[in-house]
Amino acid sequence: MISQDTIDNHAKLIAFQIFTAIEQKKQNNEHLVLGLATGSTPIPLYQELIRLHQEANLSFENVYTFNLDEYCGLSENHSESYHYFMHKHLFDHIDIPTKNIFIPSSKVEPVFLKDYCVGYEKHIQELGGIDIQILGIGRNGHIGFNEPGSSGVSITRKIELHHITKRDAASAFGGFDFVPTHAITMGMKTILSAKQIYLMAFGENKKQAIKQAILGDITDELPASFLQHHNNVSYCVDFNINTK
Ligand code: GLP
After folding, report:
1. What gap in Å lies between CA 15 and CA 112, rounded to an integer?
2. Is the C-beta atom of 39 inside 6 A of ligand 1?
3. What pLDDT digit, counting tens, does each position of 45-100 carry?
4. Is the CB of 145 under 6 A from ligand 1?
5. Distance (Å, rounded) from C-alpha 15 to C-alpha 104?
6. Catalytic residue flag (residue 142)
7. Computed over its alpha carbons, how large is the radius of gyration of the chain?
8. Which ligand 1 atom minimizes the distance to the CA of 37?
9. Is 121 a catalytic site residue?
10. How far is Cα of residue 51 from the mean position of the Cα atoms in its chain?
11. Is 90's C-beta closer than 6 angstroms to any atom of ligand 1?
12. What distance in Å separates the CA atoms of residue 239 and residue 208, rounded to the nearest whole number?
């Protein structure tokens, strides 16, 4: 059973870490780079960041954000696009400058795709790399849209969505056949370059993937297992991974 208290506590702790990091950077006249995820999992974290903005004067003026991924082909106003999601659940409620927000485009022409993806990587690097990366996880162990088969040295690219991912998204799109077939995702290498990572996973249906990611072999069949190579990952879960 999902424990809402546990989820809220994780959200509060991560939000407080982000708050502290933003304030520290501010004092040094520096900016913070956040890597952001979509899905239902990080919503309580975004709610807590909004609360801190409204009630504790947390300003995001010195923050840059890079989202992990976006579906190909959807308009940015589509209710299932990650552009729409991020504005609805976070950006519309805080004072982050629009120019500081980066989300992969859903509408890159094939001929510009390679340059576009290299440019996304370059932007991250030019801003000093991702300081704090927020992650969820798919039931198939994907991170962002790094589907099974993604290499540990992959960078931002277009990828075909896995059938489990499409099945999980089917109801939101009104059926399996309406789920976009491709997405642009940051790569595993991009994600592993972040200085600090919080992976959030709640509910029994995520337990198997998390268990394998932490305790299993490092394999491209379960891209989240590559996080074992990173020395600063916090796994924020609401179940005991040592039980069946
Ligand atoms: C999508 C996103 C992932 C996210 C996953 C899980 O596939 N691309 O970044 O982690 O969904 O979503 P949820 O948190 O709704 O379970």
Report:
1. 36
2. yes
3. 999 999 999 999 999 999 999 999 999 999 999 999 999 999 999 999 999 999 99
4. yes
5. 24
6. yes
7. 17
8. 9
9. no
10. 20
11. no
12. 11
